[in-house]
Amino acid sequence: MNSAHLAWPCRPGHAVVAVVLVLVSFCQGVASGAEQVSIGSKSFTESVVLGEMLHLLAADAGAQADHLRQMGGTRILWEALLSGEIDAYPEYTGTLIQEILKGQVVDGKDELREALAVHGLRMGPELGFNNSYAIGMRRERAAQLGLRDISDLRELPDLALGFGNEFLDRADGWRGLQQHYSLPQADVRGMDHDLAYRGLASGALDATDLYTTDAEIAFYGLVALADDRDYFPTYQAVILYRADLQDRSPEVVTAFSRLAGRIDAAAMSAMNARVKLEGVAESRVAADFLAAELDVQAQLVGRSAWAGFWRNTREHLALVGISLSAAILFAVPLGVAASRSQAAGRLILSVAGILQTIPSLALFVFMIPLLGIGGPPAIAALFLYSLLPIVQNTHAGLEDIPSPIVESAAALGLPGRARLRLVELPLATRSILAGIKTSAVINVGTATLAALIGAGGYGQPILTGIRLADTGLILQGAVPAAALALIVQGGFGVIERRLLPAAAMDTKAG
Amino acid sequence: MVALASIGDGLSRCLTTPPVEATAAFQQNAAMLHLRDISKSYDGQPALSPTDLHIASGSTTVLIGPSGCGKSTLLRLIVGLVRPDSGTVTFRGEPMSAQNILLARQRMGYVIQEGGLFPHMRVRDNVILMARYLRRDTGWIEARLEELTDLVHLSMHLMDRYPSELSGGQRQRVSLMRALMLDPELLLLDEPLGALDPMIRYQLQQELRAIFAGLGKTVVMVTHDIAEAAFFADKLVLLRSGRIVQQGSIAELARSPADSFVTEFINAQRGPFEALGEVLA
Ligand SMILES: Nc1ncnc2c1ncn2[C@@H]1O[C@H](COP(=O)(O)OP(=O)(O)O)[C@@H](O)[C@H]1O
Ligand SMILES: [Mg+2]
Predict the structure, then answer these.
(1) What residues of B are in the A interface, CB distance below 8 Å?
(2) pTM > 0.90: yes or no
(3) What is the sign of the dihedral through the CA atoms of A276, A281, A283 and A289?
(4) Predicted confidence (pLDDT) per residue in A211-229, tens digit
(5) For domain A305-509, which CATH number applies: 2.160.20.60, 3.40.630.40, 3.40.630.30, 1.10.3720.10?
(6) Homologous superfamily of A34-127+237-294 in CATH?
(7) Minimal Cα–Cα distance from B163 to chain A, Å?
(8) What is the side-by-side order of every strand in the sheet holding A222-225?
(9) Fewest C-beta in 10 Å: which of A71, A133, B141, B177?
C-alpha cells in the first residue's frame, strides 16, 4: 500500500488541530489581561489622534492601556463599548443624539447623560471643539464677495456649489440647509469630497461643505461661513466611557477630565493637518499636544516599520490559518455528508451557497453582536466564507468518481468508512485541494477587511493608508497580501504535485 | 407465445428449486447460492422480475441475454450492491442482510468489464488492499501475490505500476487477481472480457477456463456472447427483459428451446463460431 495515500486523511488532520490550538491560545494570551484599559477609535484621523491622547493619558495614570485604532464606524465602537470590549472612545454629541439614540427625544446635555446612563455609560466633559458641518470658501474669495455668514449666500444665486455626495443626499444636509436659509443657488453638484477641495483651489467651485476641524482648512486657506441661524446640529467632541471604569480606575477617569475644554477647532484642525498632510504619526501628534498643554510627558513606544510589518504578518497569518483550518475540518465532512444523501446534499450546498452571497463586509459586521470585535468575529466570518468552495469541491470530487470504482471497493467487502478513507477521499483529493486552494486565496484577500473590525492584519496599513491618502502605506498592506496569496497558490501547486502522481490520478483507465 | 413462456418459467422453477425437504447439510454442499423471488425495479421499470435461481457449488453458470435484460442487476443483487425490492439471497445457507453482507463479500470475488481498479494505487496495492485491511500476515500476502501473478501469467515487475500504465488485458488479469486474493468460494464476473480485442479475448478465455477448472470454484459469469457462454458454462441462464427464459446446458437450450426467443437468440450468433459447433455436436 502506498502509505502516502493511506495516511492522507489522518496526518494533516492532526497537524491542523495542533495549529488551531496553538493559534487560539496565542490569541487568547494576547487578548486577556486583568487591569487593562482599552481605548477605541473610529476610522478617521481625528478619532485616532484623540484615541492616542486617551491612551497616553491612561498609561500616564498608571493603567495598562492599549488602543484599538480605527476599529470602524460609530456602530462598531458603540457595540464594542457596550460589550466591554473597549472602555472608552472619543465621540460627538451630535452623533449620539442623531445616530445612536435616534428615535429617542434627547434635549440638552443632562438628558443625554441620562440616556447614556441607561446603557451603563458616561459622558466626560466637552473637549472644546465642535466638529460640525460648515460651508467653506477660500479666504480671498469670501473676502472678495464680502461673505461672512451663511445668510449672505442668499444674495448670490450664481455661486457654483459642489458638495460631497453624502452631504448632498442627507435630509439634514444641503436640502435642509437650503430650506432653512432659503438659498437660491441652482448650480449644485455632488462629487467626491476630495475633488470638491481641488475644485475650490482651482476656482471651479465657490463653496463646499466641510467639517470645522478638517485638515484641509489650513492647507487650502479656507474659511468657514458662520451658521448664523443655527441650522447645523452641534457635534461637541466628548469622551464616552463605561460607568464601571470609574470604579476600576478612577485615576484614568480623572486623567481624561484634564482634557476638558483644552482643544479648540483650530488646534484640532492643526493636529489633523500634521497627521494627514505632514505624515506625522498620530501618537507623536497626541504626545506633543499633551506635553505642551497638560505637561504630560508620554512614553512613546517606538515601533519600527519592520516590527509593524511582522505584527501585521503574524495577525494576518493567524486570521487565515485558524479560519481556513477550521473551514477544512468542517467543510470536508460536510462535503462527504452532502454526497451521501441527496436531501442532505441539497441542504448543505444551498446553505453554504447562501453564506457566500452575503457581502464579506456585511458578514464581518454581523459577527460583532455575536462575538464582539477583534480576532474572534473576524475568524468566524472568514471561516464561514471559506466553507463553500471546500464543501462544493469535496462533494463534486466524490460524485465524479466513476461508479465501477466505487462498486469495486464495496464488492471487496470494505466497510463504508474504509472505502471513504482508502478509495474515495484519495480519489477526490485533487478536487478537494483545488477547493481548499480557492478558499485560501479568497481568505487571504478577504482577511484584509478584518482590520475594519479591529482584527489587524495587512488590512491595517491599507486602512490607515486610505484614511491618510498615503499610497505608500496602502501598498505596505496590499503588496504583502497579494504576495501571500501567490505564495499560497504556489504552495498548493507543490502539494498537488507531491501528493498526486499523474499516473495515479488517471481515473479513466480503471 | 404466452403459453410457451409460462411453460419455460415453470420448467426453470422445477430445475432450480431444490426439494423442500432438503437438509441444511445438503444446502451447504450443493447450494452455493440461492436466489428466491428476488426482484428489482428502477423508477417503476422492472430491471429484474421476481426470479428464483439456484447455483450449485463448484459449477460455472453463465448469465446470458440481450443488453439491458438484467444480467448485471442480478449479479449486483448477489453481491449486495443493489438492495432487492423483494426476495432473499441465500449464500452458503445464510440469508444475506446488511449485517452479514460485508463478511459475505470477502468470500466472493467480483470482476467487472472495466476492471474497476483503483487508479490511485499501484497494481500490488490494488490486489492486496483487502488482505492488508484484514491484517493478514505479510508473508502470506507476499506468497499469495506471487502465486496469483503466476496463475494469471503476469510478471512481478508489473506490480509496481499504476493501472493506467497497463494494457486492457493486463488490467483484467489484475482485476482477477484482486478478486481471487482472499481465495473466495464464489467468483462473480460481469463481462470480464467484454472490453478486450478479439485476440486477447480468445487467449484470456482459454486461460480463464483453465484457471476455473484448476481452482474448482463456483463461478457466475455474465456475457452477451453465446459462444463464450457455451465455452465456459456448465449451465446457461438465458434472460430476457428481466425474466429467466430458460436454463440448462447449451445442448438442452438448442435441442428443446423453451420458446422461439431461445432459438432466435442462439441462431443469431451461431454462424461463424466453430466452438459452438463443437459443443453442439
Ligand atoms: N442504476 C440504475 N438506475 C436506473 N436504471 C437502471 C440502473 N441499473 C440498471 N438499470 C436498468 O435496468 C435494466 C437492466 O440493466 P442491467 O442489469 O445493467 O442489464 P444488462 O447487464 O443485462 O445489460 C436496464 O433497462 C437498465 O437501464
Ligand atoms: Mg451489464
Answers:
(1) 76, 79, 81, 102-106, 108, 110, 112-122, 125, 128-130, 132-133, 161-165, 171, 178, 188
(2) no
(3) negative
(4) 888 888 877 888 889 889 9
(5) 1.10.3720.10
(6) Periplasmic binding protein-like II (3.40.190.10)
(7) 6
(8) A208-211, A133-138, A222-225
(9) B141
